[in-house]
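Q: Here's a chain of 251 amino acids. Please give me its 3D structure as tokens.
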Amino acid sequence: MPEDKKEKPIVITPDEGEHHHDHAHGHHHGHSHPPSSETVDITLEENFMERNKKLARNNLQFFEKHGIRTINILGSVGSGKTSLVEAISRKLAHRRDEILVIAGDVTTTIDADRIAQQGVRTIQVNTGVECHLDAKLIQKALQSIDLASTKILIIENVGNLICPADFPLGSHLRLVVVSVTEGPWMIQKHPVMFHEADILVINKIDLAEVMEVDVDQLERDAKQINPKLVVFRTSIRKDIGVEAVIEHLGF
């Protein structure tokens, strides 16, 4: 890790009442409900998601205008998201003043602290009760720092394969990291996450045999959901496959 320059992460939290919603997704039951409650919940959720999409489009326009290449990294806790961000930061150490990382987590700064040790500017966004980042939180984070030198923005989303899928942030690319340690079915069980993804990184391939996971089948599962996915196989801790990912990202 760089010894001459270590950054401390800026910590951002949602304003009280700013971000809470109930994730109502229109579940159907075999008995009737009063029409007001569920209808209002679903309408609020739909309005929130549409508003997020609009803000995400505004974010993308901002990134395009200022020449900031932006990637949204998604995946489960322990899949290797933070390790990938660390590896990218190390390999682009000569450009570290151009790199900004936004790390999403529910409460801690653990990931942001790790990334900041690589000498890149880091903003920790704590989401509180929410299980994903949203476009407004990204806007708020960017208002906390001078972006004049920024050419690369890496967003590490909150760790899970479910709710971040529905909330675009305005990034140029969505990259999903999965690990063979999550078992053979994680892609089939979470198809929505892969519908809008651009890149899939299958990580910890060195453990595939001991985990009895067929990496070829994981790739087939992903391609069946989204034939346009670009797939990379990595062992980030062993520095296998990371260079190819960076090259494809256009950094």
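Q: Can you summarize the key feature?
A: The two ends are 20 Å apart (CA to CA).
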